[in-house]
Amino acid sequence: MADRQTEPCSPGHSSNDNVPADSTASANIRRLKERVINVHKVIAMCDATKK
Q1: In this structure, what is the dihedral angle of CA atoms 13, 21, 30, 12, given to the nearest 10 degrees?
Q2: Rounded-to-integer distance, Cα 28 and Cα 35, Å
Q3: What is the 3-state secondary structure (H, E, C) of 1-51?
Q4: Residue 36 in contact with residue 29, Cβ under 8 Å?
Q5: Cβ–Cβ < 8 Å for 45, 32
Q6: How far is residue 18's CA from residue 48's CA, in Å, rounded to a whole number?
Q7: pLDDT tens-digit profile of 5-24?
Q8: Model pLDDT for residues 19-42, shown as the tens digit of each residue
Q9: Which parts of this chain are annotated as the region Disordered (predicted)?
Q10: Contacts (Cβ under 8 Å, ≥6 apart) of 36
Q11: Up-side HSE of residue 13: CA atoms within 13 Å toward CB?
């Protein structure tokens, strides 16, 4: 969760005014899913090295 601080909590409206809210939300969800998948990969590698 350390990278949470590098991202602003709310995106600046000036840059996102012309972007529909649902498209940015789906992009955020996609990014979160990719991050979760990467975390699971790291956990799986750690488990494999422990055995």
Answers
A1: 0
A2: 10
A3: CHHHHHCCCCCCHHHHCCCCHHHHHHHHHHHHHHHHHHHHHHHHHHHHHHC
A4: no
A5: no
A6: 46
A7: 545 555 555 454 555 566 78
A8: 556 678 888 899 999 999 999 999
A9: 1-26
A10: none
A11: 0
* Listed residue (8, 6, 1) closest to 39, CA to CA: 1
- Residue 48 pLDDT greater than 70, yes or no: yes
For 29, the token pair is: 């969800």
In the block, tokens 């494999």 appear at: 48
Dihedral pair phi/psi, residue 43, rounded to 5°: -60, -40
Residue 23's nearest CA partner among 35, 11, 34 is: 11
Structure tokens at 22: 């649902």
